[in-house]
Amino acid sequence: MENTALKTQHLSLAYDGKSIISGLNLLIPTGQITALVGPNGCGKSTLLRGLARLLKPHTGAVYLNGADIFRQSTTKVAQQLGILPQGPVAPEGLTVRDLVAQGRYPYQKSWLQSWTDEDERLVRKALTTTDLNELAHRAVDTLSGGQKQRAWIAMTLAQDTQILLLDEPTTFLDLAHQVEVLELLGDLNQLEGRTIVMVLHDLNQACRYAHQLVALRDGTVMAHGTPADVMTEEMVQEVFGLACRIVPDPVVGTPLCLPLARK
């Protein structure tokens, strides 16, 4: 049995008739962190939206736990897969706890259904896991960038799905907050076995925190595998048009990309 809960078969995605992804076959390993990398406009975010059922395939299909994702109800998908889009914005004044509680909406069978002990337990667990208990009653729009990202991640955790999709979760964060968010995602993977797919721009962070890299260019997968297999000088030149040297990261031993000057 293949070790994947999310895969594509001959997937093609398009915006306004313009092809972005074409004929893509991709397996997302269960229980691992997969990073989608590539230059701007290569199709990373488009692919993530396709995987999340936010963009309907032009051709082909996305399979979630063995079934075509578009043949499953929105509620059923939301109980299996959580997505954090790029730059989400909370309504003004919404508290952290109320934001996190929105992750339980896929389990509310009707507007009349009361809040359950299980709902409460999972919201509390999400706040604890993301170290947000002391900020639970703060308005989301008063938090720092790293705290806001943790709050949104907590919402997806309260959704209680085994698969998390994140579109550039470190964008606009300073280096300390980037590491904070990536360490949290690493803990969720290691301690809870969550399958995580995230779009990242920083190749060295992708190598350090992901088990698998998917390198895209012009909507095509140019390389897919472990960081050691994918992160080569030839791949960086082919995908990014950049000369570099790849050396071992002196801290963790993963590939480290050192760009060379163009002149």
Find the CATH superfamily of the largest domain: P-loop containing nucleotide triphosphate hydrolases
| CATH architecture annotation name of the largest domain | 3-Layer(aba) Sandwich
Write out the strand line-up for the largest beta sheet, numbering strands in chain order. Answer: 6-7-8-3-9-10
Helix content: 25-40%
Tally of separate helices: 9
Structural class: alpha/beta
How large a portion of the residues is in β-strands, by DSSP E? 25-35%
Report the strand count. 12
The CATH class of the largest domain, by name, is: Alpha Beta
State the order of secondary-structure elements, H for helix, E for strand.
EEEHEEHEHHHEHEHEEHHEE
Show unreliable segments: none
Question: Could you say what the CATH topology of the largest domain is called?
Answer: Rossmann fold
* Total domain count: 2
Key phrases:
263 residues; alpha/beta; Rossmann fold; 2 domains; six-stranded mixed sheet; four-stranded antiparallel sheet; 9 helices; globular; iron transport
List the helices and strands and how they pair.
Layout: E1 4-15, E2 18-29, E3 33-37, H1 44-51, E4 59-64, E5 67-68, H2 74-78, E6 81-84, H3 96-101, H4 117-129, H5 145-158, E7 163-167, H6 175-192, E8 195-199, H7 203-209, E9 212-217, E10 220-225, H8 227-230, H9 233-240, E11 244-248, E12 255-259
